[in-house]
Amino acid sequence: MTDIDPDFASVPEFARYYRSLGIQAVPAKEPRESKSWKRPALATWRDLENDLASDETFDSWYGPQGQHINRKNIGLICGHASGGLFVIDLDTHKSPQAQSWWMAILDMRQNVAELETSTQTTGGGGKQLIFKAPSNWLPPTCKTPIGVDIRGEGGFAVLPPSRHESGNSYQWDEDLAPWEIGIADAPHWLCGAIDQLVEQYGGTRSAIPNTSGPIVHTPTPTQSVNNYGFLVDGREDYMTKLVWARVVDERRQTPIKPGAKEIDQIAEALFVVYERNVKSRLPYNGATNEQLLEREGRGKSLMRQKMHAAFAQWEDKVQLHAEAGPPEKPHGYESPQQQRPVEQIKFDPKTGEITSEQSPAELEVLSLPEIRLLPDPKYLIEGLVIENALGFIFGPPGCGKTFIELGQALSIAYNLNDWWGRKINKNGPVIYISSEGSSDMKFRIGAWEYENNVRSDNAPFFLIRQSLNFMSPIDVNKLLKAVARVAQREGINPVLIVVDTVSRVIPGTDENLQKDVTLFIQACDMLREAFGATVTGIHHTSRAGNLRGSTVFDGAGDYLLSVEKDEGAQSGRIIAKKIKSAADGWSQEFQLKSVTAGDIGGHDSLVAIGSKATAGQTKQVNVWPEKDVCRQILYAVDKAWQDGKPWSSKVQSRKIGRYAPMLMSDWQIKATLAEHMIETWLARDVLSYELRDPRQKLFGLRVIGSID
Asked: 83 and 35, same structural domain?
């Protein structure tokens, strides 16, 4: 059968049509039969997961005397039985997260036709898209709490014209029925996006790189912790204690057992604590600690299994332990309250109250006249640091970035009129978060005071020197309360909060992962929004010389300042890589000067002294050449990569003639502009810094995008 009239066809005719497409179409339960009715109406349907049912078996269901010819519902067994078909199930009609995930997928598409495939609207209002998996990729089955489910190997999906419990029928979307458009082959990039989904929420098979295949058993070490204090032995016992403490805590909060989705969410949150305190025994091979733990069978999948097993004892053993008193608190354990940060925090310095606010029910929509009435952007430091913003100052170790930012912060707190010739528009309290080098902070401050001829014990400059984890809701809440105490005492909110350094407040985090960096940005935004303060993070550079980590840093920063200084030199420069609503691309020179701290012990410290930002001294580097010239440069970069002699963005490559800004002088481009162009292209994914030759460990610039 190769054709069908959907308006008049019976369920057996639909079944025969689906079968002609290679689909394992089987009788499905109806809502009246079971609460969990989205299942095959066959006791032994698992036997049908590998091969298409024989004609004899199919006729026993839908033949003239078939057992199920009057059944109204029908479904698809996904995976091998249906030639590798899988289903993407989207609850976009009721889940904003599902909508966001799918919109991200649409943004990734390379052409419209790639995602045009057989698509149905379920009786409940959701969308289901059917794809055929590539031969080298096994479609997973994954159920997530964000309203996105993948029905792959071992999965099942109800098909039209089945009836839903709502009374509505499953229907193929207009022009997207199998007889109109067919079933598309899933592009590899879509399979990669699904693998990332499974990596985050789990599934019936591992989709994490380097974790496929059997669990790797590693020998028991002679010590329980490694040299850095991370647990490497007794990890499963530690996980069990974490899980049990959390489940008992949940029982003490409420007698109502959470649903399966909420249990998975609880396991997800608790795994963050577990992964922060344990390390895999497997050798590092480019995978993350989370991936290696999964490979050992000590990862997120095991956490979910233990969590569900513990909640299964909700009415007996869990209840008894809850009534006996608070559970034992394993190292690093966070209670349910500690792991549930508020959505938005506001602080009122007049009342001293920190309150949480929900997002408004309706979005504000502004007309053109209303847009024109919006206030102009305000600057804490004119043309550089924006009020109520997030920014980063970054550079390699020893470049002086901490002394530069400290001078900025002290100038604001000590009520100075300018910083390096740039007008300070707003003075006020400053909170400086630093757990590294805080022992000599008094000498740094003393030297800065001596150089600037000021002295005050009443200036509103405050130091927080305890170690903080911005990935932990409990630590973020502690920080919010500490800042609130300062604001209440001063009677005014802080105008600047400095994080020195970013890497210190995100311990164990993969800075290249978007989801991890996003959590850090959210914590900074909570500080910024609660107090109306500017937050500045001091960060390091990558091997390519740009801001280290995910591009989320670049996108979230309202201003980015790069610090450059040759090793051993006392002078350097800052480059404005990005300034929102103001000119960027300029550079400003500075010197690191050793100055007495003015104390009895005769200590001294470095102070960053910048050239004044006058019209003649601030160098503009952002006047780019024509596009044809830019294309010629990128062509030269690409050819150098193909020839095995890649250009480099690292200053050290000057000695071997591969330094890109130096080579760009052939187009009469000055070094400062060339450096700015390379940095911009790296940030915008026009260029990447990659390994060209593993044997020689040769890194260089590679063209991966275009400027069109």
From this structure: yes
